[in-house]
């Protein structure tokens, strides 16, 4: 029995020796090098939201119906409010989508009054209200002492609603017409400056020229003509104040 045990132990020792010798002769496994994962590169700097108020001064519009020439056309000044969401791509470029509402303004002019006598005009008036949605791009020129001047441009659409359409003839006769609404292509040019109150908050003061388009009424009968009253060349100079809050 002792002889058998010695034989088993001797065999195990011999096997381990041979295995160790073979393992020592094997080549070392290759070292696999892993490339580091690419770093995330942020395309832009931050999202922001904005809110604005403004004062709107209309340029002289063109009023009338087909075949008529109206005179003394004008639109009253009015106010506006707006909001939007935007994205700053880098230190110089940002874009936003804005929605503005213009409070109703009175627009009026004098129309030829064919049944009133030669050279006489009726006093025509209406109320306009406007919604404008624009996609805007801005170039921030640089920052000095917290002030950042900029220029920009925008394209979009304006919804013009005409109501409370009325007239007064020279003889005192009065009447009303039915208003209407219309969508127009709109565009804008902007310039202004912002002031950085904090890392996330900026105050914005700027000027915007807005081309709105036109408005119209339902067809109107008079002076041998059946056609809508058209309020053309609607455009305004806007002086705006607002805040932008960065969500970054």
Structural description of this entry:
Strands 1-4-5-6-7-9-10-11 form an eight-stranded antiparallel beta barrel. The protein has one domain: Porin (Beta Barrel). The chain is 10% helix and 64% strand. It is built from one helix and eleven strands. A hairpin with a 6-residue loop joins strand 6 and strand 7 (147-168). The chain has 248 residues and is mainly beta.
Short structural summary:
The protein has 248 residues and is mainly β. It is built from 1 helix and 11 strands, in the order αβββββββββββ.
The total of beta strands comes to 11
Strand proportion? over 45%
What ranges have pLDDT less than 50 throughout 5 or more consecutive residues? none
According to CATH, what is the topology?
Porin
What composes the largest sheet? 8 strands, antiparallel, barrel
Instruction: State the end-to-end distance.
Output: 83 Å
Level of helix content?
A: under 10%
Number of helices: 1
- C-alpha geometry: elongated
Would you list the SSEs in sequence order as H and E?
HEEEEEEEEEEE
Quote the average pLDDT: 87
- The CATH architecture name reads Beta Barrel
Q: Give the strand line-up of the largest sheet.
A: 1-4-5-6-7-9-10-11
What radius of gyration results from the CA coordinates?
38 Å
Structural class: mainly beta
Number of separate structural domains: 1
